[in-house]
Amino acid sequence: MSASWRRFAALMLVAAFLGVPGPPAVAAALSDAGFFGRWSGSAWTVGPRLNYAHAGLKPVESAVKAGDYALAKRRLLDHYRSRPAIEAGGFSHTAWPGAIELTPSHIWTLGSGEVHVRTLTFGPGEKTVTADVTSSINSGRTGFFLMSRYKDAVIALINSRSKGSGKPTLRLTLADGSVRTLVPAHDTYIWAAKPGNVYGAKYYMQVSDQGAGPFTDETRKAYLRFDLGSVTNVKKAELTLTGTADTAKDIMLYGNAETFDEATRTWSNTVQNTFSWEGDPGGFDWKLPGGADAEYLYQLPRFYFAGPLALEYQRTGDEQHARTLIGLMTDFIKDADAYDADQGAGSYPGNLHAARRLQNWIAAYEILRKSPSLTPEANVAILKTMNRAGLYLEVNVNGTPNKMQSQKITLLHAAVYFPEFRAAPAWRADAAGFLSAQLDDSTYADGGYKESTDAYLRGYLRQYVDVVAFMRRHGITFTATAKLRQLGRFLMDQSYPSGYGPAYGDSDSLDLRSTLRSLGELLDDPELLHAGTSGTSGRKPAHTSALYPDTRVAISRSGWTTGDSHLRINADRGNHGHPDELAITAYAYGRPLLPDMGTFTYSTDARAKWLRLTTEAHSTIEIDEQPQTSTAAGGISHLISNPAFDLIGANTESSAGVRHERSVLSLHSGLWLVSDRLKPADSAKEHRYEQNWHLAADANPSIRSGTEATTTAFATGANLTIVPADPGEVASTLRDGYYAPRFYSVEDAKYASYVKTGAGRTTFDTLLLPSKGAADTSATVDRLPVSGARTHEATALSLNGGAGVYYKSWTTKAPRAFGAYTFDGKLLYADAGSIVMVDGSSIERAGTTLVKAPAAVKDLAVTFDGDGTVRIDGSGLSASTDPATSIAITAPKAAKVILNGAVVPFERAGALIYAAA
Q1: Is the bond preceding residue 168 a cis peptide, omega within 30 degrees?
Q2: Among 78, 80, 17, which residue's Cα sits nearest to residue 47?
Q3: pLDDT tops 50 at residue 1
Q4: How distant, in Å, are the alpha carbons of 87, 213, 658, 759, 761 from that of 679?
Q5: Nearest residue to 348 (alpha-carbon basis) of 415, 393, 290, 410
Q6: CA distance 72 to 77
Q7: pLDDT band of 25, cuts 50, 70, 90
Q8: Strand runs (DSSP E) across 740-847, as ranges?
Q9: Considering only CA atoms, which of 22, 85, 69 is closest in space to residue 49?
Q10: Would you identify the CATH topology of the domain 541-778?
């Protein structure tokens, strides 16, 4: 059976369920009879899509039965103009780049990477113009591009930085009153007729556009990028350009946040986000222009500009805005909404896009329905399309959670807003049932989200907050509050202590707090409320660190305040995920120190492909210069959580022929130790292992010769030191990469690369040392031999010249000696103020007992405060002073013992104390 027949059959079933007395019309263009129905004698020969039993539609029904469809259209518009307001839902966007000024001219900008600042005029002759670009600079857009406002034959020549005089300048007035004037670090132009040519060294940047369609061979656009370095606190920014044109030439100035190299930029390698159909009598063609990001095809038909235009009409009453939006809606219907055998009418170009468009159209219709610009013909055309879109959303199935959720939310809004539609009751039942059930399908058993991205999870939860409240207002039952709470807790755990997301997968770093706060209020959950208000309301979560074994994510967190630390490691998989298994993101002292490097765009741009599709772009180990696959075994093997530390174990076989195991010791006192072991299936085969540590664009990293330690040098705030254990065995370099802190924004960024090549089992051991201020440039790591074990069996390190020691057994535990220590467990960390032990019973240093337990202890942390307080933390420990059953701890200065947060008695035997068993 063909797709069209399957869809027809599905619609017939819907019709039968609703008791429609005749077959619905299915055709390339829905006829008036197909929408209003056709009455013959005493029966409907074509079933109407309107429910004439609804109050107010009797005059419409009478006109239809009389065969007067023109009258029916007028009466239907009269009905909607007089109908009381019904909640129409919200717009997907209430603001959009250039929407009010430029959309009527059919100029469209994808996303927010390019934001219209103003239109400048050059010519006749040479002119110098200055534009206030303060908002652009302060929003992180330190680049600009120039594009012709109108399609005409005039070419503007804008002076470049290569010209002797009249160079472009950016004048910055800082908060302290000082002034800095910059020239571009790079400027150039691109030309459609010569797609491979580079113009970065030219004296002039050319800007022109003419002809029909989004561009022609005569389309030329100019780009400038300024390097602000460490400039902050900009009070005012002014861009000055000098140019010439034969006659007056209007040029649109946009701010952007994209880095580029003038020596390599061409039309072919530029991802363009703004296109113009100005003056084209056909307007938008609703298709993907050549050279555009693939998202262009989706975002334009979603009608993101409907919100700004409709709201401006509502605010001003200016009919020009209503005429523009109604014209765009009817143009879309004419150009793109023909029946498609595979998709169905009302669906172009499919699933989420149809849902977003219907969402925006419903909200716009509530504003436009009383506009004098809305004719009976246009009204019916819009209603027909919305009706067909609802039928499509009811039967379409998509495996991606956020897409299906959006479809059913929009369907529910359509059901409530259009009770006149005969299908509305079925839509209401279908959407409400789906939205309650979908949380089970979109989450793992542990409550984690099946899409590997925190930005999409945030949006998913935000939509649930809104739709559950909507359902409650309209008496619709939502039955999955427990599952919604669980998923909200998952997002809460992912969030940095600052409240922002770590931006894993296809994400940018977003503030998660408003979503968490709204969830907390909706579900009456004090912990979500606490996280969503940065602790000003609610109750601090009872846990810090968290393991999601099914989702394959672990988080080590020292607390819930901005100054606490947060480390995330994953082996997760799912839609919108990256090949980043065992990657680490880390935050401390108010800053992401090992951020995820972001996404940039979904385009084929080389930078976006590197960010999204390579393992090299993540803080993990890339094997043999190939990206990981997402089909092999892997997961988080354990999280041992203690108030003083966490120990995480993870593994993946996502690189062919090699198993990667990663262990992370996270000390809440302020450092991380990462141990990696690579186990090739063929021990004789040589492999290349590249351990990468990714840093923000303004980290200013450097590598210290000898120790090969990488240190960051942020201008203010926290920094990081990365110290490898085997500096003589790795090839260490700072490599060029990219950082996309938000979509449609990308910056050059350096990252630290440590490479080992060899056969057999290989290890990396790395100290990650955060600091509140300047990075610690004196930190050292030296490998200690371990008795009876090779490095891939057990590893031991001396930290900072012996100030600390670290040991990890990769194999079964056994008493082993390293440096001055002897230990019989799985993991040990010790320094002058603390001891951490996992699955061990005995620690000796230089023959002296530090810890001695009658049996192995799962986890133990002992902290020695300067005032004589000894803090003991561990799973399953209870107070005991009996030397026969309790743990002996060397603490000659002990004056008070706190066990798992409570003061307990202790007994002393020489230098040893007994307080816990």
Answers
A1: no
A2: 17
A3: no
A4: 60, 56, 5, 10, 5
A5: 393
A6: 9
A7: very low
A8: 745-759, 762-771, 781-783, 794-799, 804-809, 816-818, 821-823, 827-831, 834-845
A9: 22
A10: Beta-galactosidase; Chain A, domain 5 (2.70.98)
Contact 915, 853 (CB under 8 A): no
**Phi/psi at 847 (nearest 5 deg)?**
80, 0
Coil, strand or helix at 652 = strand
The CA R_g of the chain, rounded to the nearest whole Å, is 32
Are the C-beta atoms of residues 842 and 823 closer than 8 Å to each other?
Answer: yes
Task: Please report the sign of the dihedral spanned by the C-alpha atoms of residue 34, residue 40, residue 42, residue 43.
Answer: negative
Give 569-612 pLDDT, tens digit per residue: 999 999 999 999 999 999 999 999 999 999 999 988 899 999 99
For 483, the 3-state DSSP assignment is helix
Kindly indicate the confidence band of residue 344, based on its pLDDT and cuts at 50, 70 and 90.
low
340 pLDDT higher than 80: no
To the nearest whole number, what is the mean pLDDT of the chain? 94
Q: What is the DSSP string of 65-80?
A: HTT-HHHHHHHHHHHH
Measured CA to CA, the distance from residue 417 to residue 363 in angstroms comes to: 9
**What mean pLDDT is predicted for residues 175-194?**
97
List for the chain the helix, strand, coil content (%; round to 5): 25, 35, 40
Model pLDDT, residue 288: 85
Contact 546, 447 (CB under 8 A): no
pLDDT tens-digit readout, 759-808: 999 999 999 999 999 999 999 999 999 999 999 999 999 999 999 999 99
**338: pLDDT confidence band, cut at 50, 70 and 90?**
low
DSSP 8-state code for residue 500: B
Percentage of residues in the chain with pLDDT exceeding 90?
Answer: 88
428, two tokens: 């209401």
> For residue 125, what are its two tokens?
């002759």
Dihedral of CA 346/349/354/357: which sign? negative
pTM of the shown model: 0.91
* Rounded-to-integer distance, Cα 848 and Cα 536, Å: 48
Query: What are the backbone angles phi and psi of residue 566, rounded to the nearest 5°?
Result: -150, 125
Q: Which helix (H) or strand (E) holds 53?
A: none
Are 667 and 734 within 8 A, CB to CB? Answer: no
pLDDT on residue 290:
78
Question: What's the CA gap between 769 and 763, in Å, rounded?
Answer: 20
Q: 821-823 and 816-818: which strand pairing?
A: antiparallel
Locate the DSSP E strands across 589-670: 591-594, 621-623, 634-642, 645-655, 658-667
For residue 652, which of 622, 672, 674 has the smallest C-alpha distance? 622
8 Å CB contact between 668 and 565: yes
Find the length of the chain.
917
Give per-residue pLDDT as tens, 131-171: 999 999 999 899 999 999 999 999 999 999 999 899 999 99
813: pLDDT strictly greater than 70 = yes
Buried b (16+ CB within 10 A) or exposed e, 620-645: bbbbeeebbebeeebbbeebbbbbbb
CA angle 725, 728, 730 (to 5 degrees): 75
CA 132 and chain centroid, separation = 31
Instruction: Give the 3-state DSSP-derived string for 147-194, with helices as H, strands as E and coil as C.
Output: EECCCEEEEEEEECCCCCCCCCEEEEEECCCCEEEECCCEEEEEECCC
The DSSP symbol for 511 reads B
Find tokens 């959720």 and name the residue: 405
Whether 468 contacts 484, CB under 8 Å: yes
**Tens digits of per-residue pLDDT, 784-796?**
999 999 999 999 9
Q: Quick one: how many helices (H) and strands (E) in the chain?
A: 18, 46
